Amino acid sequence: MNRTGRDYLESIQDGRVIYIGSERVADQTTHPAFAACARTYAALYDLKANPANRDVLTYEEDGERYAIWYLKPRSAEDLKRRNRAHHRIARFCHGLMGRTPDAGGGNLTGLAMRPEAFDVGEGGNRDNLAAIWQHLREDDIFPTYAVVPPPGARNRDYYQSAGVKMPALRAVRETDRGVVVDGMKMLATGAVYAHEVLVGNIMPLAPDQKAESITCVIPLNLPGLTLFSRPPMNRPGDREFDAPLTHRYDESDCMLVFRDALVPWEKVIVHNNAPLSRSIYVETPAHVISNHQSTVRFREKLRFLLGVASLITRYTGARDIPAVRDTLARLAAMEAGYAAMVEAQVLAPETYQGGYVIYNRRYLYAALHWAMENHSAILDIMRELMGGGQFQFPATIAVADDPELKDMFDTYWTAGADKAIDRMKLFKLAWDVVGSEHASRATSYEKFFVGPAHAVRNYNFVNAPWDALHADVEALMASYGPGPSR
């Protein structure tokens, strides 16, 4: 199947239960909070269905074509093809959407590249995984994931001593048809728009937390599953002009609450094996494949930020001031340096078990760390370049609806050759990437979507070639002694 945008919109009108506070959302494709972003995802499906993008966004196998994020890379060229697809999608949304279909698709493809990782102990089911992966690619499924427990679940002693219901998702009983689960999983970015969700554990579990180890891939309209959206940023009456990035790219985040939900056996890939529920991500290429997409996305975002920063200084007339040029040059160097870090992952691939290849892990985790450390600083630089420009315009472009107000707006806000409406459009867009509610959510996302800072640094520690680094130093020290120099 190769869905079009229309096919996609029809496919997510599936009766899933979504709440915004106490409001039940009847149709996320028409609700003011979600409709515009649903159209963005539909446009991504149309992008893939366009014959002009056939060789970039799809691949052929056994006479059938599939989304290229389901390609299991066996050569450096396969890695390049996946990389090009990530770039095309990220460029389309300017790197501002973290959970596009290639993100979750890459994660599950990485899991499927090493099925023997599911054979460690009991409870793993490689056959189910293979069937799920095949279904995802054949039916052109958009998957997301929810792999973090609620904060309250991390104090197990309290729940054991107080007799209070444990909030973490856990298996509560088994039936002939499947596993009944109860509890919460976080944080399913894009769940309002995705077809299915991988539910699991990216954080380690204690060996006795077998019930919490349940890992499955389920449709988001599973009976007993409720999606609780965080506050949407698109609101009735808002105009795209006043917050264009929020309007198009608020991909939403949801908490998933399960109440006596039956997960069919064929959807379960780990059960009653706490260590395995975490190790599947690091003992397969899943973490590497999915996070390469993340670094490509951030590269495109950084490119977009550089363009916005430069245009801001042009509209303010400050671009040729030496100090401003120096600041733009600094941003340009950062953008080019990060691009090189992403390209290096492709140009220095690693061989993997089973005849596969993966992106260079050391360069990957260095790029993730760089983005986490520098994103906020870059926004601060852009804020400084903007000055108070955002606050020097009318509240909304609604002033243009009234002829008298429009005349005043055009007269007093035009600056030289730059028309008032063009200046306001740029500053509204810039604020939406730097200071709006949407921008604030993105800032937190860039800091934490891979995990806390210490976890990201640990990936860099684990993948550093310490033995080789030590050997270089030790070889030099071995070449001289305490005697007189020659």
Shape designation = globular
Ranges where pLDDT stays below 50 over 5 or more residues in a row are: none
What distance separates the N and C termini?
A: 74 Å
Average pLDDT, all residues: 95
Strand order of the largest sheet: 2-1-10-11-7-6
- The percent range for helix content is 40-55%
- Major β-sheet annotation: 6 strands, mixed
CATH superfamily of the largest domain: Butyryl-CoA Dehydrogenase, subunit A, domain 2
Radius of gyration: 25 Å
Number of helices: 17
**DSSP, total strands:** 14
The CATH C-level class name of the largest domain: Mainly Beta
SSE-based structural type: alpha+beta
Describe the structure.
The protein is α+β, with helices and mostly antiparallel strands and 486 residues long. The protein has two domains: 5-282, Butyryl-CoA Dehydrogenase, subunit A, domain 2 (Beta Barrel); 286-471, Butyryl-CoA Dehydrogenase, subunit A, domain 3, CATH 1.20.140.10. The protein is 48% helix and 14% strand. The chain has 17 helices and 14 strands. The protein has a six-stranded mixed β-sheet, with no helix packed on it. A four-stranded mixed β-sheet has the order 5-8-9-12. It has a two-stranded antiparallel sheet with strand order 3-4. The longest helix is centred in the middle third of the chain and has 31 residues, at 286-316.
Brief summary:
Helix 4 (76-92) packs across helix 10 (286-316), helix 11 packs antiparallel against helix 12 and helix 14 (420-434) runs parallel beside helix 15. The chain has helices at 5-11, 35-49, 54-57, 76-92, 101-112, 126-138, 156-162, 244-249, 274-282, 286-316, 322-347, 361-386, 403-413, 420-434, 437-448, 453-463, 466-478; strands spanning 17-20, 23-24, 58-61, 64-67, 143-146, 170-174, 178-189, 196-199, 215-219, 225-229, 253-264, 268-270, 350-352, 356-358. The chain is 48% helix and 14% strand.
